[in-house]
Amino acid sequence: MTPRPSGRIHERHRQVDARGRRLFIAVPLPADVVDEVRGIVEAVRAEPLPGGARDVRWVRLDGLHLSIRFLGPTPEERLPALIEAVEAAAASVDGPIDLELAGSGTFPAGRRPRVLWIGVQTATERLARLAVATEDQLARHGWERDGRPFRAHLTLARSDGIAVADLVAARLAAAVGDRRIPARIDRLGLFESITGGGPARYEPLAIRNLA
């Protein structure tokens, strides 16, 4: 029996790219965790950059999430199957996942990083199992598997490889320090990334509680 979607697709009067909507699957973070991360980011951003350098591109803090699977431009007609995949993956998990955010890093590591992030500690195996379950459900509906290993992290900024990113990454590491931020993950969702007019915003299309 096909599970009923717990979320709904939001109808909006907007032009959709010919390739489809930019979609991804992720777990949203609780509001108290977002607030603590916001404090870290604001502390880093409050420090001036040398010589009027251009800052890294910080993500919108009102949509913080841990990405599970990036899908990219997706035709509208595939949305119902995606919602079914999210439903089934969420139902396969034995309740909420308790983890901690701790430490920071960059992709790639070393000079001129392109992505700045906070790490995930504890419960990484359960989060990885959720990622595998998501991949399995997507494969059932015709998506190719992502061959890259899953590595849980919270993306905070993208830098396009600018030189000042090294300094910002060091400041982020100092601001995070030895702090450990507990987070209870209890939902899995399908999201659309909407760009234009500043940092991308992330609109939920379907959200399912972890069983």
* Rg estimate, integer Å: 18 Å
Largest sheet, if any? Answer: 5 strands, antiparallel
State the low-pLDDT regions, or none.
1-15
The number of distinct helices, counting runs of at least 4 residues, comes to 4
> What is the overall pLDDT average?
91
Helix-strand category: alpha+beta
Strand and helix order: EHEEHEEHEHEEE
Oligomer: single chain
Task: State the total count of DSSP E strands.
Answer: 9
Terminal Cα span: 17 Å
Beta-strand portion reads: 25-35%
Order of strands in the sheet with most strands: 2-6-5-4-7
Name the helicity range.
25-40%
Q: What is the overall silhouette?
A: globular
Overall description:
Helix content is 27%, strand content 32%. By secondary structure, it is of the alpha+beta class. β4 and β5 form a beta hairpin. The N terminus is likely disordered.
What is this structure, in a nutshell?
By secondary structure, the protein is an alpha+beta fold. Helix content is 27%, strand content 32%.
Reconstruct the topology from this structure.
Layout lengths: L20 E8 L2 H15 L11 E2 L6 E10 L4 H13 L5 E11 L7 E7 L2 H17 L12 E6 L6 H12 L3 E6 L1 E8 L6 E9 L2
Helix pairs in contact: 1-4, 2-3
